[in-house]
Structure formats: C-alpha cells, structure tokens
Amino acid sequence: DAPNARVNLFERDVATIHRQSITLNRDLEAALAAQAPFTTVFPGSGLAQQLQAVARMIAARSTLGVSRQIYFVSTGGYDTHSSQAPTLTGLHTALAGAMRAFYDATVELGVSNDVTAFTASDFGRTLAVNGDGTDHGWGAHHFVVGGAVNGNRILGDIPPPVIDHAQDSGSGRLIPNVSVEQFAASLAAWFGLTSSEIQAALPNIGNFSGPLDLFNASSSV
Known about the structure:
Layout: H1 9-33, H2 46-59, H3 61-64, H4 84-109, E1 116-118, E2 125-129, E3 134-136, E4 144-146, H5 180-190, H6 195-201
Antiparallel strand pairs: 1-4, 2-3
C-alpha cells in the first residue's frame, strides 16, 4: 500500500514506519552478511552474544553509513537478595568472558581506541547481609574498558568493608563519593561534547568537581 493512499494520518504514519523498518532490516542483514567472521571466539552467554552482535555492527559501520554509534546491552541476575555468593561467581565469570571477547574483537577490527564499554545500574547493594544475600543499596562500583581508557586504576575511595561508618547512610548503604554526572561527563567529553554541551546535558555537573580522568590525553572519537 502506498502511504499516500491512506486517509487516516495515524494509519499513514504507521504504514510508513512499518515499511521503513522492513527496508532497514533488509539492509542491516545484507551489511552484516558481508562481514568476515571474527577469529575472536565469543562465549555462549547472553551478554557475550549481545556484545558479538554489537561488534558485528561496528564492523559493518562503513556499509551502514554511520560513524558514531551507541549500543545498549543488558544482563541480569544481580538483584541478589538470596544465594549471593554462588550467584555472583557465575555472573562475574560470564561478565569477564564477555568483556574480554568484546575487547579482543575491537582489537581485531582495529578500533579498540575508538570503542569504549562501560557499565551502568540503577542501584548498588548493601554491605549488610539479610541472610545469604543483600538488599538494594546506593553507592556501587563500575568499570570502563577500551583502548583509549587510562586504565589499571581505581577512581574514588574504597570504603571500609564494615557497616556503621562515615560512608554508611544506614543498613550498610554506601554514600557515593563519585557522582553519575561525573562518570557521564567523562564519557560525553570522550565522545566529543564540548564543555557547554556537557553542561546542557548534565545540568548538575556544576555541583561536583567535574569530569573524571578516565581517558588518555587527547583521546576522543
């Protein structure tokens, strides 16, 4: 159906979007099929398979006509109200394997300095246990991976592994000493945003000491 043949404007827009989706899906399939397979072996975990799909999209960037891309992948199971110790062992093993394979794939593609992976979450975990797990917390830790990252460092303070201290807001909920705005501002600067653009995107950044020193000097995409 030609969209112009439809009288209802909503129906016309839906038909247009549907047609564009079919075309884009066909173009994407063709672009991915044209890429050589990786020599890097990705594990079979759900996260690793998502990251493999991201790596394939990066490999096809020229064919797809895109120069800057942002991808979101997700993994679950960290809401460990129970069985935390055995659960985290498996989760961390899968996470490490997935991230190792993804970084190796960016090296294979020659884009490791142009690709940065980082973690994000709604909340952390408490230091206090509730039996054999933990409850929802506030402060947490995150990591950043990529060839442009000034790595092998920990930014921020490591709190005492006990409860009832200055960084404990109660029940083992840690008070963050680095804000998500600082984390995001650092990534945004690497991605090419100017100081004024970062201020517009993150209006609370002025309440903190500014972006973090996450990247090597002059690193930007």
